[in-house]
């Protein structure tokens, strides 16, 4: 087999994408289960524990239920857009999977030196921002096409919220870009290696990190920013009229977006796959080094996913006017200030 | 040094993701039971018959937010390429640091003035404006119903 043949390379990439896709779907399924269990423990109950030992087969039971549910298309809806909306939401969420740098360079037998990332290109960060913001269309169109008042309100709120917080999200990343001078996620991670973890961007970019985390939670419509699906006022918001697997697609899109946000936070601020002190135990490039690095990467990502669940079990929901004034009047100026501050420090040669 | 081959995974990922999504929609079309009744197909409104269409006028605030978003998003798009090259061009090799710094700070300052303007104009105030709007609407409705009552009498 000739590894430099473009067709074989494309086939290998396709295989890698297919594997990543399935791994991420499993992570999403088990995030949902973990969320239900942890929320149960936070609220002093058990959560789902009947299907399989400790409830580990619950996601598959849920999937079967979704498949055998009746699909209802409301008679007043705009059918084509109604079907298109979940497709846009889930496709946009999944498109980011290819740029995650989940492990360091490793020398494998037969393949030679391999970078543990599916696609590496210069504009990876911009690509992630561009693709995830397409997700707004899925939600706005779903709200409009259902022709239900709750859906429309949820869709409107969601679009306003997502575009408002996208500004502070983007601005909080400019600080990291200023420091690293590249949009290539792999290179950003490599720049953070060494110094036993003190090169991680979270230290010089702490304001940026906090702004990023806050606006990312708003961007994924999670508690305490889950206004689009505020169940006490809007039933289920933009997906009130969706049932069966189309509802599951929205659900999946939300959890994949959570995963993306956690991966970006890990990559940009917490040093990606860098584990402090690992280079003392194994030589960089060896297989155990790569294995432990990938484990370190996933530990960080799961920490952020846990943070999401923890917040959901802890905080009450914002009011819509509070949400908008917090985003525009607080987060946006702070993010701008962070950009100015970082630029000044880079200009003076401190960073 | 533009290599289109590096972007091939985007296409492959799109095929996998879109294929998955379409297959899910088709599966639930094919497998799920189909027992439709007119009541079931009504838009959900907590058990009441829906009154009128959902597609009525909504607050102009949503448009305003979208317009301001576009302005500030363009600012962000200007910032990104500047941020990418800033460290390299500010270094000893090029020495353009002061020029680039002053130019971008001027740009940010101009936008910040605009931001203060929309803030003072009250575009970012949802609660106050929403209350005034609701009060005006209630007054108008009260006037209408009063008129209708008078006509009926």
Give the C-level CATH assignment of the domain at 58-153 in chain B. Mainly Alpha
Helix content of chain B: 55-70%
Query: How would you sum up the major sheet of chain A?
Result: 2 strands, antiparallel
Oligomeric state: heterodimer
Task: Give the N-terminus to C-terminus distance of chain A in angstroms.
Answer: 47 Å
- The total of beta strands of chain B comes to 0
How many individual helices of chain B? 4
List the uncertain runs of chain A: none
- Count of DSSP strands of chain A: 2
Helical percentage of chain A: 55-70%
- Poorly predicted runs of chain B are none
Subunit structure (chain A): NDH-1 is composed of 14 different subunits. Subunits NuoA, H, J, K, L, M, N constitute the membrane sector of the complex.
Main location (chain A): membrane
EC number (chain A): 7.1.1.-
InterPro entries (chain A): NADH_UbQ_OxRdtase_su1/FPO (IPR001694), NADH_UbQ_OxRdtase_su1_CS (IPR018086)
